[in-house]
């Protein structure tokens, strides 16, 4: 995975699962560009994208959707 994300937990989860941006994008049914933009902080994930990424990466659903984790409707 080139670059990395703004979120250390997301970086760690992607590494643990052996996933790159394209694999994560395919798993949540969005473009690789969309995933890269979300991970870079260029755009905010929707609530659905946030939850799907957490599910795919096996991140507990206890992360608040605030601050750098804020989502859009």
Description:
This protein is an all-alpha fold. It contains 4 helices and no strands. The chain has helices at about 10-15, 20-30, 30-40, 45-55. Helix 2 (about 20-30) packs across helix 3. The chain is globular, with a radius of gyration of 11 Å.
List the defining traits of the structure above.
mainly alpha; 4 helices; 51% helix; 73 residues
List strands and helices in order, with pairings.
Elements: H1 8-17, H2 21-28, H3 32-40, H4 47-56
Helix pairs in contact: 2-3
Provide a brief overview of the structure:
This protein has 73 residues and is mostly helical.
Overall spatial form? globular
DSSP helix fraction: 40-55%
- What percent of residues are in strands? under 5%
Q: What is the number of strand segments?
A: 0
Query: Helical element count?
Result: 4
Q: Identify low-pLDDT runs.
A: none
Helix-strand pattern: HHHH
Going by helix content, strand content and strand pairing, the class is mainly alpha
């Amino acid at each position: 995975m080139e670059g990395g994300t703004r979120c250390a937990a997301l970086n760690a989860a992607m590494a643990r699962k052996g996933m790159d941006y394209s694999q994560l994008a395919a798993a949540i049914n969005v473009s690789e560009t969309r995933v890269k933009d979300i991970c870079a902080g260029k755009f905010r994930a929707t609530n659905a994208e946030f939850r799907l990424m957490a599910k795919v990466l096996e991140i507990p659903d206890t992360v608040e959707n605030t601050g750098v984790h804020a989502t859009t409707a």
